[in-house]
Amino acid sequence: MAHNPPVSNVRGQESETGDGLGGQVRAMLDAVMAISSDLDLPNVLGRIVESAVSLTHARYGALGVIGPEDYLVEFLTTGLTDDQRARIGDLPHGRGILGLLITDPQPIRLRELAEHPASFGFPPHHPPMGSFLGVPVRIRGTVFGNLYLTEKVGADEFSETDEELVVALAGVAGLVIENARAYGYSERRREWLEGAASLPESLQVPVGGEARLQQIAATARRVSRSRATAIADSADGDIQALVCDPGLEELMRARVAAVLARVRGREIAEAVDVAVDDSVGTVVPLPTQLTRAGLLVSLFDGADLRHRDLDDRELLRSFADHAALMLDRGQAMTEREELAVVSDRERIARDLHDLVIQRLFATGMQLQAASMRVSDAEVRVRLERAVADLDATIRDVRATIFELQSPATGSVRSELRALVREYRSTLPFLPELHLIGPVDTAVHPRCGRADAAGCRDAPARSSCARWGARAGADLDRGREGLHRRRRTRHRLPATAR
Q: What is the pTM of this model?
């Protein structure tokens, strides 16, 4: 059974060896302190490499991070100059001796790197390297990456003590990396939660549907730090919102369309990665219930995406679920406000029909009865004219009732009235529109659109525009269908008046 030696013995050994074991212990403690003093993962990885190089007196050091497909997705080096890195070119992906540590994660110590059967050689402009020491870095039993050290300064090869020190450092490094990854995940999760929490306020009514989608895409791009983020219809792939850097709209739209084309026809339930050129698009569903379901697409650089793990995809997926809830909430609030407006319009229409029209009709009947008892012809004419005016007023009130009962948009009545308002600013006269009967409920939408198109072309075919006449159109829903009559009363040209 192993036991720790007395402290006095350890101190005695340190005093006997001088700067030997005592110096190595101090160097080891300094290395542990160095790699534990930061929680930012890139900084932690860099400090691990530098501490290993300093601990073993190696000329060059590197840390390779293993990806999901057992190849190196990241390769941090120390000892190489910027010029040397640029001349070497692409960093290794895990072949040769580096790959041996991936397939068989056990410490490797070599006197001459090139003499090993698995040696793959060096690329052009690579500095010569002889002695080699490789040690895996594990996190909870899973290999995270490998530490590579070459060119022992002052010796032909790394010693067994060097190997033991690096193995111990790799064990501590695994714990530090795990803490840094947990801290990084908590920070990313906090950012996503803050982004999701900002949606309810930014998506409040009267923000429209397109503005809501644009705001969601902008928030997702800001938090995910993607090149572009888009929201598209899941059925036809129509891009409804796109957020990217200025000047890249066409390029990003084309790449998003290419990503959507790859997933068209597939049921997207989880995050899916699709490679397009030098980018990778992450597609997550936007599962709305009150509006058409959509897809949230975030474009990343291919190199950057390799460093992202499943947690990042899950965070994006969770944000999309929250955004879908906010879209449904906004749609529900919009429909509730529209329902309140419709209820008010129906109440006003009912009051007009039950009170105003009945009183006007009763007054007209009284005037008509009185005109039949009057012997004076002039008085009778005036009473009949008043009755006719009351009939015209009743028709106008009924038209207002039909207007209140019609949808705010998309109805024949609203399209024709919008057309009249459009022509008021362009024609030299005041156009009029008289709608008789339940035009919206009794007319097929296709016939209504055709009639609206005919009314739009009428001023161009008429001489009214040239003569400055007063013109109007009657749209009457009779027993035989829909009839449109154009009324024109000519006057002198504007230049002759």
A: 0.59
Query: What is the C-alpha to C-alpha distance for residues 172 and 205, in angstroms, rounded to an integer?
Result: 53
Of 399, 385, 406, give the one whose Cα is nearest residue 356: 399
In 3D, which of 395, 487, 408 has the Cα closest to residue 440? 408
Does the residue 2 lie in any domain? no
Structural domain contains residue 495 = no
Q: What is the pLDDT of residues 449-473, one digit of tens each?
A: 555 555 655 555 444 433 333 444 4
CA distance 459 to 462: 5
Query: Are β-strands 432-436 and 470-478 bridged in parallel, bridged antiparallel, or unpaired?
Result: parallel
Helix (H, G, I), strand (E, B) or coil at 266: coil
Q: Same domain for 35 and 165?
A: yes
CA distances 430 to 154, 177, 414, 427, 471, Å, are 100, 77, 18, 7, 7
* Over residues 338-357, mean pLDDT: 76
- 130-153 tens-digit pLDDT: 889 999 998 888 888 889 999 998
Task: Give how many domains the chain has, as a whole number.
Answer: 3
Q: How far apart are CA 262 and CA 77, in angstroms?
A: 37
Residues 409 and 431 in one domain: yes
User: Distance between CA 178 and CA 200 in Å, rounded?
Assistant: 34
476 is a domain residue: yes
Using a 10 angstrom Cβ sphere, with 0-12 exposed, 13-18 middle and 19 or more buried, the burial of residue 198 is middle
Please, which pLDDT band fits residue 309 given cuts at 50, 70 and 90?
low
pLDDT tens-digit map of 66-86: 877 777 878 888 888 888 888
Question: Can you give the residue range of the structural domain that contains 252?
Answer: 194-334
Let me know whether 310 and 354 are in one domain: no
